[in-house]
Amino acid sequence: MLRRTLILAAGAAGVLAAVSGAQAQQTVKIGLILPLTGPFTAIGRQVEMGARLYMQQKGNTVAGQTIELLVKDDGSVADATKRIAQDLIVNEKVNVLAGFGLTPLALATAPLATQAKIPTVVMAAGTATITEASPFITRTSFTLPQATEPMADWAFKNGIKKVVTLVSDYGPGIDSEKAFVGVFTKAGGQVESLRVPLANPDFSPFLQKVADAKPDALFVFVPAGQGAQFMKQFVERGFDKSGIKLIGPGDVTDDEVLNNIGDVALGAITTHHYSVAHDSPENKAFVEAFKKANNMRPNFMAVGGYDGMHLIYEGLKKTNGQGGQALIDAMKGMSWTSPRGPVSIDPQTRDIIQNIYVRKVERKDGELYNVEFATIPNVKDPVKAAKAN
Ligand code: DHB
Known about the structure:
Elements: H1 2-24, E1 27-34, H2 41-58, E2 61-62, E3 65-73, H3 78-90, E4 96-99, H4 103-116, E5 120-122, E6 137-139, H5 144-157, E7 162-168, H6 171-187, E8 190-196, H7 204-213, E9 217-221, H8 227-236, E10 245-249, H9 258-261, E11 269-272, H10 281-294, H11 300-319, H12 324-331, E12 335-338, E13 341-345, E14 352-364, E15 367-379, H13 382-388
Helix pairs in contact: 2-11, 3-4, 5-6, 11-12
The protein binds 3,4-dihydroxybenzoic acid.
3,4-dihydroxybenzoic acid binds at residues 43, 102-103, 125-127, 171-172, 223-224, 251.
C-alpha cells in the first residue's frame, strides 16, 4: 500500500515537473533583425515601427503564450545578420526570425533557418529567389518581378516604346531589370539597361547616358530611402524638363521620402503593392494609428513589418503556440485583409500573393501621394509561377 502511494506520488511529481516545464516554455521569442544604423536605416526603422504597432494593437499574448520581441541591428552587413541570427537561435532560443532589410541579409541567414528549423519571415527584401533559399522562409514584403511586370505592360500599352532601365546592381535591381526587359521587349518595346552600384551611388554619369539615349521613359529601381538622392540628381540634370517619363516599381517614390522629393516627382508612374493613399477602411485605420505612434507616414516597409507580425500571430493561433515545422506549415495558405488590400501566402512558394496597383504621383491637400488608379489583382511571383508551368 505504502509502495503504491509512493509510486503515485512520484508519478504526480513527474506530471507537475512536466507542467512547470511547459509553463517555463510559455514565451514565444521573435528575433527581429534589421538595419537600424548605416545607409539603410530608413528601411529598418519602418519595418520595426510596423511590427511594434501590430503588437501595440493586438497585445503580447497569443494562444496562451507571451510574445517577446528581440530587436537587433545588423547595420545592413550580411555577416552581422548571420552572426546575430546564430546568437539568437543558440543563446536566446528564439522561435521565429524576422525582418531582413535587404536581400543579402536574408540570404545570409537562410541556411541557419533550415538547420535550426526556425520559421523566418522576410518583411522587407524583394529578390525572387529568397524563399527558395530555405523551406522555413516565408515573406510579407513582395518580389520585384511581381511589382515590375505590370509596369512593363502598362508602359507599352500607354505609348512608351523606348526605355532605359537604371537599377541598383544587386539582387532586386537585377530582378526588376530582367522582369521589365522580358515583358517590354516581348511586347515589341526597345530597352537599354544600366546598373549603378548599391552603396553611395553617384547617378550623374548614368543620367548622362540616359540623356544621350533619348528614351520615352526612364525605368528606375533603387531601394527604399534612396529615391530622394536619385531625384536630386535627376533634377540637377534637367530631366524634369526633358519630357522623359519616370517609371518603375514604387521603391523610388516611397511614401516616406516622397514629400521631401517634392514637385519634381509629380506625374511619375509606378507599380507597387502599397500606397499610403490606398483607399480602404483598413488602410485608413493603419495610417492613422501609425502616424499617431510615430509622427510620420508609413511606407511599404512598415506594412511588411505589420503584416509579418500578423502572419506570426495567426500562425501561432493555428498551432496553439507550437513553432518549428508546424508553424511554417500553418502560415502556408493563410489569407487576410492587409492595409494594402487582400493578401495570402502561396502554399507552394511561401511568397505573398497580392494586388499590384498602378499609381501616379499627385498633390492632394498639400502633400504628395502615389495615387492608385488601376489594380492587377492577386499577383503571384511571376518567376516561380513560370517555373511551375
Ligand atoms: C530590397 C528591395 C527593395 O524593394 C527595397 O526597396 C529595398 C531593399 C532588397 O531586397 O534588398
